[in-house]
C-alpha cells in the first residue's frame, strides 16, 4: 500500500451519525452542532495532502477509487485558498507577475501522457494564487465583486449535473427552478405576464434584444435576410455599452446604423436629441426599429429617463430595450427602484402594443 497521510480525517458517515455520536455529551442540540463544527474545522486544518503520486485516468464516469480523493482535495483547496483566504482582506487581491515570469511558474505545455493528481492540485493552487480575487473587500469594481456562497454551490451543482436546459425532459428540476425565478423577477419589474431567459452576460442580453426587436418588426427576416428590408436603425445614448454596436454588426445591420444620442451633464440620454435622431433616420428613408435605454451606464452609472423614452417609442412604434446589466438590480430596492420608473408600464393588455425587453 502506498504511504499516505491523507485519510487521518475521521469523518462521520452522515450528519445524523455525527449528532448521535456526540449525543451522550449532555449538550443542547445547538451546542452539539457547534462542537461538531469546531471538530470539523480542526480536522480540516490538520489534514494534509497525500504525498503519493496517483495517475490521472481519463474516464467518462468518475469512480470513488480513482477520483474521490482528488475531488475532495480539490474542493478543499478551492475552499481554503479561493474562498476563505481569497475573501480575507488581510490578503492581496492579486499577486501580480509579469506575463513572462508567470509563464515560467506554470507548466502549461499540453502533453501526450497523463500527469498525476498531485500535479493537477499544484496547478489548481498556483492558478488561485495568481488570480484576481473579486471576493476580496479591497477589490473595488462597479460591475462585480464579492463571492456569494449560495451562488457558488449552485454553480458547482450545475457543473456536477451538467444538464442542458433545452427541454423539461432533460432538466426537469432545473427547468422548474428557472421558471420560478423568472416569474419572481417579472414581479420585481411589475409585469403580470411575460417570458424570460437567462443570458450569459450583458452583451449577449443586448444581442438577444436586438434580435427580438428586429423579429418583431421584420418577422420573415430569418428567411429573406436583411436585404429584403430598408436600412434598420437603432438608437442608444453615446454613454451606452458598445455591445449594441457590436451585435448590430454581428447581425448584419452594421455598427453605423446604431445612432448615438447625446447625453446631459449627468450622462442621461437627452430625449429631445433622441427624437431628432429618429426624425433624421426617417428622412433618410431608413427604418427605425429599436431604442436601447440604459439603467446604469458603464462608466457614470447614469439612468436614462425610461418613462419619457417609452413615450417616444410609443409615438414612433419602436421597440424599447432597457439594458439593466449594471443598474437593473435597483428594482429590488424600495429606495432606488424609482430610478427605473417606466419599466412596469408594458404589462398585461398593453404587452402586444408595447415592446420592452429588460436585461438584468
Ligand atoms: C451597461 C452595461 N451593459 C452591458 C455590459 C456588458 O456586460 P458583459 O460584460 O456581461 O457582457 C456592461 C458591462 O460592462 C455594462 O456596463
From TrEMBL:
It comes from Acanthoscelides obtectus. This is Glutamate decarboxylase. Its cofactor is pyridoxal 5'-phosphate. The lineage of its organism: Eukaryota, Metazoa, Ecdysozoa, Arthropoda, Hexapoda. Belongs to the group II decarboxylase family. The keyword Lyase applies. GO terms for biological process: carboxylic acid metabolic process. GO terms for cellular component: cytoplasm. The keyword Transcription does not apply. InterPro entries: PyrdxlP-dep_de-COase, PyrdxlP-dep_Trfase, PyrdxlP-dep_Trfase_major. Pfam families: Pyridoxal_deC. Keywords: Decarboxylase, Lyase, Pyridoxal phosphate. GO terms for molecular function: carboxy-lyase activity; pyridoxal phosphate binding.
